[in-house]
Amino acid sequence: MLTLAFDTATNVATSALLEDGNVLGERVGLPRRLLEDVDALLTGADAEPGELGRIVVGTGPGSFTSLRMGLAASRTLALALDAKVAGVSTLDALAAGAPAALPVIDARRREVFTVVDGKPVAAPPGELGEGLLQGRVCVGDGAVRYREVLEAAGAEVPPDDSDLHVPRASVHARLAEGFGPAELVEPIYVRAPDADRMRNG
């Protein structure tokens, strides 16, 4: 059975095609070009869309628009192909790709998404504190953007071009469980989208 995994929550889109846990191909691109990458993966593996039995989608947190693109793609593909879907947190995938590291995603508005006491949060990087950061390796586009702030608090950030900063879709596939109807997969927003904040403000 073929499994397609992808994540569009950050400023890059990652996608991977696997068969029985073996990676047949993996791509890194832009969220708006996700379906082009999926087509390229299938072509490269000489596979047909109808062979996809499972889909794994990144559930964020991250960019609201990009995240919705990935979820919409997963639901459309699942409906068209009668495939089962599972969601995996983008933070969890980043952490699993760099064991013992702290995932840090750029949340815009001078904040980052990270994990505190096992829960996803949005916070200014300067407020995370040495208790959380001292001696920790931080990975993700938020770690790259706020390198100076995090390193000043005692964290270590790998080089900007390190693969550790990318939420690999193959890692999502490895973490996925509980496959079911696509509509049951919920995004992790952490905070309200900008449009909702403006409407309520």
Structure in words:
Helices cover 33% and strands 24% of the residues. It is α/β, with parallel strands linked by helices. A hairpin with a 2-residue loop joins strand 2 (13-19) and strand 3 (22-29). The longest helix is centred in the middle third of the chain and has 18 residues, at 64-81. The mean pLDDT is 95.
Q: Which fold name fills CATH's third level, the topology of the largest domain? A: Nucleotidyltransferase, domain 5
Oligomeric composition of the shown chains:
single chain
Helix content: 25-40%
User: pLDDT below 50 for ≥5 consecutive residues: which ranges?
Assistant: none
**SS content category:** alpha/beta
- Give average pLDDT, whole number: 95
Name of the CATH superfamily of the largest domain: ATPase, nucleotide binding domain
- Give the overall shape: elongated
**CA radius of gyration:** 17 Å
The CA-CA distance between the termini, in Å, is: 48 Å
**How many domains, in number, for the residues?**
2
Count of alpha/pi helices: 8
Percentage of residues in strands: 15-25%
